[in-house]
C-alpha cells in the first residue's frame, strides 16, 4: 500500500515570514510600529521560525526622510519592536548587493538583535554577494544567499553562480521567482539543481515565490515535495506587486503542530483587512501580463498608480508589440 505523507509533517521544514520586508516595497516601508509589532507578535505566537522585518538599505541610496525605518533596520528601531529577550523566533533582515553599506551598517552579531542576514543578489552581482556573505558570517550571523530573477538567468550562468555560492558560508541557497513566472515543472527543475549543489555541504535550499500567476502557494508545495526545507511566506500574501505565498495557506498545509494558524487569522482580521483598504497588492491582471512576458513587475506597479490602471489591453499590447 502506498504511503500518505501528507497526513504527517516534516519537522526539518522552517518558515520565514517576510510580510514587513516584502510588503514594505509597496509603501517605502512606511509601516507604523503598531502594525510591525502586531506582525512580529503574531509570528512569535504562531511559532514561525524567522521574521524578516526589513532591509539594511544604504542611507545614501534610500534617504531616511523618504523611507520608513524598516528600510534600514537600525538597532534602536528593532529593539523597540522585538525587545532584547531570548525568543524562539529569530530576527532576519535582507541586505541587497550593491544597495547595502554592509561593512558599516551590519554590526557584529554580539551588538545586534538580528540573527540572520539574507544576502539578495542578481547574477551580475555575485562577487559582491560573496563578499557580503563572508562579511556577515565572520560577524557571527547565520547567512543565506538569495539568487533573484532566476527566470532571466542563463543556464551556464546559474550553474557557475551555484558553484560559487555553494562554496560560501551561506547556510541556505534560496530559489527566488522574482517575476512570479514559474510553473511547478520549472520549480521542480530549479529545486533539483539547487539541491544538487547543496548536497554534502550542510546547506539547505529555500524558496521565495511571487504570486503573479496565482501559483506562489502551489510552487512552494512543489518545492517542498522536492526536498526544499526553507520556505518564505507573508501574512495574507502581502508583498510587492502580486504578493507572495500566503502564510495562512502554508501553515494549514504543513500540519506541524508547532504552528498556530489561529494567530495568523486573527492578525489578518485585526490588521490586514484594514491595511488592504489602504495599499494594494495581489494577483491583478497587469501582474499576470508582466509574468506572461517574463518581465519585472515594476511596469505593472507603475500602471496601477496611473489613471490608466485598468487599461489591460493597451498594457498587454505594449509587450506583445515589442
Q: What's the topology here?
A:
Blueprint: E1 14-17, H1 19-23, H2 33-46, E2 50-55, H3 75-82, E3 90-96, H4 102-105, E4 116-121, H5 126-138, E5 142-147, H6 155-165, E6 172-177, H7 184-198, E7 204-209, H8 216-226, E8 230-233, H9 247-254, H10 261-278, H11 285-292, H12 298-304, H13 312-320
Parallel strand pairs: 1-2, 1-8, 2-3, 3-4, 4-5, 5-6, 6-7, 7-8
Explain what you see:
The radius of gyration is 19 Å and the shape is globular. The mean pLDDT is 96. It has 322 residues and is an alpha/beta fold. It folds into 2 domains: 274 residues, TIM Barrel (Alpha-Beta Barrel), CATH 3.20.20; 31 residues, no CATH class. Helix content is 41%, strand content 14%. Helix 6 links the parallel strand 5 and strand 6.
Structure characteristics:
322 residues, alpha/beta, TIM Barrel, 2 domains, 8-stranded parallel beta barrel, 13 helices, 8 strands, globular
Number of domains: 2
Helix content: 40-55%
**What's the CATH topology label of the largest domain?**
TIM Barrel
Query: What's the β-strand tally?
Result: 8
Morphology call = globular
**Helix count from the secondary structure assignment:** 13
Unreliably modeled segments: none
> What's the CATH superfamily of the largest domain, by name?
Aldolase class I
Order of helices and strands: EHHEHEHEHEHEHEHEHHHHH
Strand content: 5-15%
Rg over C-alpha atoms, rounded to the nearest angstrom: 19 Å
Amino acid at each position: 500500500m502506498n504511503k500518505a505523507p501528507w497526513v504527517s509533517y516534516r519537522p526539518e521544514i522552517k518558515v520565514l515570514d517576510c510580510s514587513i520586508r516584502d510588503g514594505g516595497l509597496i509603501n517605502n516601508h512606511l509601516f507604523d510600529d503598531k502594525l510591525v509589532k502586531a506582525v512580529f507578535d503574531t509570528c512569535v505566537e504562531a511559532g514561525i521560525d524567522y521574521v524578516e522585518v526589513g532591509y539594511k538599505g544604504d542611507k545614501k541610496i534610500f534617504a531616511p526622510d523618504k523611507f520608513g525605518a524598516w528600510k534600514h533596520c537600525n538597532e534602536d528601531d528593532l529593539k523597540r519592536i522585538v525587545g532584547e529577550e531570548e525568543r524562539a523566533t529569530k530576527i532576519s533582515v535582507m541586505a541587497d548587493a550593491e544597495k547595502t553599506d554592509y561593512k558599516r551598517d551590519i554590526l557584529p552579531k554580539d551588538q545586534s538583535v538580528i540573527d540572520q542576514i539574507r544576502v539578495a543578489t542578481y547574477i551580475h552581482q555575485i562577487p559582491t554577494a560573496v563578499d557580503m556573505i563572508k562579511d556577515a558570517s565572520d560577524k557571527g550571523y547565520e547567512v543565506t544567499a538569495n539568487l533573484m530573477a532566476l527566470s532571466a538567468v542563463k543556464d551556464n550562468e546559474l550553474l557557475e553562480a551555484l558553484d560559487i555560492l555553494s562554496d560560501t558560508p551561506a547556510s541556505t541557497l534560496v530559489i527566488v521567482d522574482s517575476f512570479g513566472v514559474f510553473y511547478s515543472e520549472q520549480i521542480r527543475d530549479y529545486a533539483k539543481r539547487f539541491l544538487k549543489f547543496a548536497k554534502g555541504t550542510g546547506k539547505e535550499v529555500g524558496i521565495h515565490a511571487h504570486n503573479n500567476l496565482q501559483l506562489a502557494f502551489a510552487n512552494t508545495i512543489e518545492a517542498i515535495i522536492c526536498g526544499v526545507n526553507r520556505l518564505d511566506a507573508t501574512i495574507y500574501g502581502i508583498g510587492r506587486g502580486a504578493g507572495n505565498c500566503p502564510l495562512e495557506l502554508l501553515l494549514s498545509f504543513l500540519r506541524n503542530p508547532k504552528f498556530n494558524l489561529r494567530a495568523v487569522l486573527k492578525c489578518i482580521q485585526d490588521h490586514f483587512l484594514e491595511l488592504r483598504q489602504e495599499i494594494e497588492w495581489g494577483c491583478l491582471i497587469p501582474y499576470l501580463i508582466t509574468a506572461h512576458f517574463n518581465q519585472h513587475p515594476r511596469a505593472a506597479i507603475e500602471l496601477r498608480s496611473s489613471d490608466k490602471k485598468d487599461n489591460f489591453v493597451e498594457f498587454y499590447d505594449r509587450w506583445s508589440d515589442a
